[in-house]
Amino acid sequence: MTQTTLNGEAQKPPKQSKAEEMALKQREISVAAFFEKNRHLLGFDNPRKALLTTVKEAVDNSLDACEEAEILPEIIVEMIELSENKYRIIIEDNGPGIVKAQIPKIFAKLLYGSKFHKLSQSRGQQGIGISASVMYAQLTTGKPAKIVSKTGPKTQAHLYELHIDTETNKPEIVRDEVKEWNKDSGTRIEIDLEGTYIKGNQSVDEYLKQTAIVNPHVTLIYTNPKAEQIIFPRATEVVPVPAKEIKPHPYGVELGVFIRMLKYTESRTLQSFLTSEFSRVGAGTAKEICQHAALLPNTKPAAVSREMAESLMKGIKKTKIIAPPSDCISPIGEVNLEKGLRKEINAEFYTTITRPPAVYRGNPFVIEVGIAYGGEQPCDKQVKLLRYANRVPLLYQQGAGAVAKSTAVTNWRPYGLQQSGRNLPVGPLTVVVHIASVWVPFTSESKEAIAHYSEIMKEIRLAIQECGRKLGSYVNKKKRVGAELKKRSYIEKYIPHVGDALKDLLELKPEASENIQTLLKEILEEQRGKVATVGVVDNPDYDENFANIGKEDKEEKPEGEENESN
Amino acid sequence: MKVTDKIKEVGVEIYNSILKKKQPELSSPIRSLSNVKYDTKNGFFELTGKMKLRTLTAATIKTFAQTLRMMNLSKELIEKDDIATKREAYYVSKNWGDARFKEQPESDSVMDDVEAMLEVNREQIGFIPEEKGGDVAGQLIVVDKDPDTGKEIKIDCTKMGTGAYSIPSSVEHLKFETNAKFILAIETAGMFQRLVKHNYWRKSNAILISMGGVPTRACRRFIRRMSDELNLPVYVFTDGDPYGFLNIYRTLKVGSGNAAHINKYFCVPQAKFIGVTPQDIVDYKLPTHPLKDVDIKRVKDGVKNDPFVHAHKEWQKALKQMVAMKVRAEQQAFAAHDLNYVIDTYLPEKLKDSKKWLP
After folding, report:
1. Does A173 lie in the same domain as A107?
2. Is B91 a catalytic residue?
């Protein structure tokens, strides 16, 4: 091939081998640089989603912080349109605040956080979210993120303006000063970024509303870019029991993590390593694991080779270990879940269920399902599915993940809904599914869908079926009552004829017919009994204004209509 | 008891139970073959007493109201000495709002229920049928009355030429004079025409009656009264098919399941079936048609459910024979031999040989 070139350049002997040439181009990729190129993995695939993701990450962090500090959260969310497609997002909480030294890393370093390393139920998990928003803002507007935080009434607030150095994944401090802040404690973040504000199913409005539904202890004060203020007041003064941190369960640990744990443990023997680093492992179980792995319980953890670790893993699998403790999970609860549903959906029938804790890969989790049937919901559309993970609404990828799949594979026909094949059923129904776990397995970093673990799918299905059975008996009752009412009104239709015919036949006075009709109606009532009232929407908790939040505005006329009429 | 009193009595009973806050009920006999037994001694179908109930249920309230309305209409007709045809009664119901009848069969059925409930004849409650009673020709003088003057009128059925005397819908007031030897009841008008045309009644000294399918009540009553009063035998001549046997002949002889409460008066137990029998098809080498599925079903149904067939081995045998042959033959099939074969050969032969009849 080189011979065919005309200018002879190709004839120069290569100074480097191809491999060396390629080696020059190879270098370390910074995490930040990687995510800069793959922003969709973090939920920044489009300008509309960017707004939602930013608000969501900040609010999630605020709620986690408040709950950990056992403070009733009061969160202010404000979005201001700076120019076309440029927005300022402000989120302020009354949480415990962040110590000065940590602020830059938390907000301007990816994969930095407290939640990744521990096993406890929290909204954030990875330590990516908020710093990714800061990075995205920097990328689209070039402006630093502004953070103010105060840890107590007697301390001073600190103000930081931060950039991320995407090459090194390190915070770049633009401004650092002490600030007066008339607040006991809390954190406020201000980010300017590119985005699009639209109402609808996947909007910030909808996200905040759904957050309010499953977090009845939270007060949210929200001002949208149209300068409309919406307040979601808290419905309960009880802070949820703070989630306990648990040690990993042996069944859920992977080899790499296991080896790392062996390396860093302070335990001197394998037995004490197993008992102290894992939950549900006592001396007996530890010995049994060692026996199954053909290792001595007094082996030094540091001396365990990769091969030995592998046989330990096998030993764990062979050993019967009781399920991890489940008191670390804090579900929403059947009562609160129903309250939330009633507020949002004006239906005839509600039922909710909180399943007993179950385990996937050594991680305890709890599935909660609620359904609202009938009322104003359309009969000819697919059911509405609301998904939550650790009290965080999941708005994107509605059809993906374990929740949609489990809902679709459930046979809904016995519960009075239409369903074709393995699709979501059709009918006037809303299904809410909440998974609470120390570690929610999302299919991606953008946390949009739950991974298809068979244990999780099974629990969702069981919960749906339990609600479904109650729904089925309600629907049947409604059918029966409907049929009875139909029969009665049919019978009542002919009562006047009986009255008139008898009056004529026996030549009675005109008012006798009325009398006969009244008596016949009484006889009928006595004979068939009272009809139960079903199918009537009687829901004082329903809040129409609340339900309309996040819905797309329909009354807005398309532009140019007025011009045409001129 | 007067019919109007009977009607009022039913009404009072219902009114009283309503006043006592008890569920009002109307019961009338079930009108079907399942509710009759064959009274072999007297020779007709009798009710066994199964009743249907109409009351305040979704399934029966409409007919409950309609029955009361129908009874009221009947009462008015009797009081005004008027009549209404079944069709007219159906149209009267159009004023009843939701209780009106959609089709005439519904109103006919309610009328039949009232009739059966009161154990009277339709004419007694003021309703008359549309259909003609049947045609008569032969050695008979019918004594009727002029509707206006009430003067006796004698109708000589030998003087009808090629036409015939038509049986009125009510026959109770008629008187008869004759010197005929027997009555021959014929299924089809076509066969009747042939016999009249060739003066068969004169040759055989008979009274000929054209039933035109299943005989009407008037026709049955006419034959019955004539046969009883003049002491004449009755012979029946129909097509050789299940309809001829089980619908036409059986209804004439023992009555129907539908109007079993009046079978006592509207049957001719002395009637005998002379043909066309299944054996005739063989004996006279008649041209045939294959039995249709409905024919076979009718036979099977008759063998299984008809008390009349249960009582007569001869009929069971004949029906089985027909099913085995899988064919049927019409009265007019004799024309294959000769147009007047039926007059010259078949009828004289059959009338002589009572062993070849069916009961």
Report:
1. yes
2. yes
Pick from A491, A501, A502: which is nearest to B58 by CB? A491
Can you tell me the distance from the alpha carbon of B68 to that of A524, in angstroms, rounded to the nearest whole number?
Answer: 18
Q: Is residue A490 within 8 angstroms of chain B, CB to CB?
A: yes
Whether residues A495 and A511 share a domain: the answer is: yes
Question: Is A10 within the bounds of a domain?
Answer: no
CB contact under 8 A, B8 and A520: no
Answer with the one of A264, A289, A318 that is the final residue of a domain. A318
What domains are there in chain B, each with its CATH number? 3-128 (1.10.10.10), 135-356 (3.40.1360.10)
Question: A520 vs B98: CB contact, 8 Å cut-off?
Answer: no
| Residue-range definition of the domain harbouring residue A148 | 33-232
pLDDT above 70 (res A490):
yes
For A513, the closest chain B residue by CA position comes to B15
Pairing label, strands B44-47, B36-39:
antiparallel
Average pLDDT over residues A230-246: 81
How far apart are alpha carbons A504 and A513 in whole angstroms?
9
Regarding predicted confidence, which is higher, A559 or B286? B286
- Quote the pLDDT of residue A341: 86
Q: Which A residues in the span 491-520 are in contact with B, Cβ-Cβ below 8 Å?
A: 491, 493-495, 497-498, 501-502, 504-506, 508, 516, 519-520
Identify the residue among A493, A497, A500 best suited for mutation to test binding to B, counting B beta carbons within 10 A and taking the highest. Answer: A497
Is the CB of residue A523 less than 8 Å away from at least one CB of chain B? yes
Please provide residue B266's backbone torsions phi and psi, each rounded to the nearest 5 degrees: -105, 50
pLDDT tens-digit readout, B221-277: 999 999 999 999 999 999 999 999 999 999 999 998 888 888 888 899 999 999 899
Is B23 close to A527, i.e. CB distance below 8 A? yes
Interface residue A84 vs chain B (CB under 8 A): no
| pLDDT band per the 50, 70, 90 thresholds, residue A439 | confident
Please say if the pLDDT value at position B285 is more than 60. Answer: yes
In this structure, the answer to whether residues A435 and A481 fall within a common structural domain is no
Cα A419 to the center of its chain, rounded Å: 26
Same-domain pairing of A113 and A163 = yes
Tokens 């979005």: give the residue: A79
CB-based contact B69 A497, cutoff 8 Å? yes
Categorize the per-residue pLDDT at B143 as very low, low, confident or very high, splitting at 50, 70 and 90. very high
Are A96 and A154 contacting, i.e. CB atoms less than 8 angstroms apart?
no
Instruction: Please report, for the domain that includes residue A300, its CATH number.
Output: 1.10.8.50
Confidence of residue B101 (pLDDT cuts 50, 70, 90): very high
Residue B165 has φ and ψ, to the nearest 5°, of: -85, 135
Q: Residue A566 — very low, low, confident or very high, per pLDDT cuts 50/70/90?
A: very low
Which chain A residue's Cα is nearest to B72? A505
Do A537 and A420 share a structural domain?
no
CATH number at residue A339: 3.30.230.10
Q: Which two tokens stand for residue A434?
A: 């909440």
What is the complex's ipTM, to 2 decimals?
Answer: 0.77
Q: How confident is the model at residue A68 (pLDDT cuts 50, 70, 90)?
A: confident
Domain membership flag for residue A26: no
- Judged by average pLDDT, the poorest of A5-19, B229-243, B273-287 is A5-19
Position B238 scores a pLDDT of: 94
Helix/strand/coil for A474: helix
CB contact under 8 A, B98 and A494: yes
Q: Which residues pair with A17 in a beta bridge?
A: none
Confirm or reject contact between A545 and chain B (CB < 8 A).
no
Sign of the torsion angle spanned by Cα atoms A40, A44, A49, A54 = positive
Q: Which residue has the higher pLDDT, A120 or A295?
A: A295
| Same domain? A70 vs A140 | yes
What are the chain A neighbours of B56 within 8 Å (beta carbons)? 491, 520, 523-524, 527
Residue A126: its pLDDT value, please?
60
Residue A554 lies in a domain: no
**A397 or A152, greater pLDDT:** A152
Decide if A163 contacts A172 (C-beta within 8 A): yes
CA dist A10 and A8 (Å) reads 5
Shared-domain flag, residues A145 and A258: no
Q: Which residues of chain A lie closer than 8 angstroms to B68, CB-CB?
A: 497-498, 501-502, 505
Tokens of A73: 């959260």
Give a yes or no: residue A4 inside a domain.
no
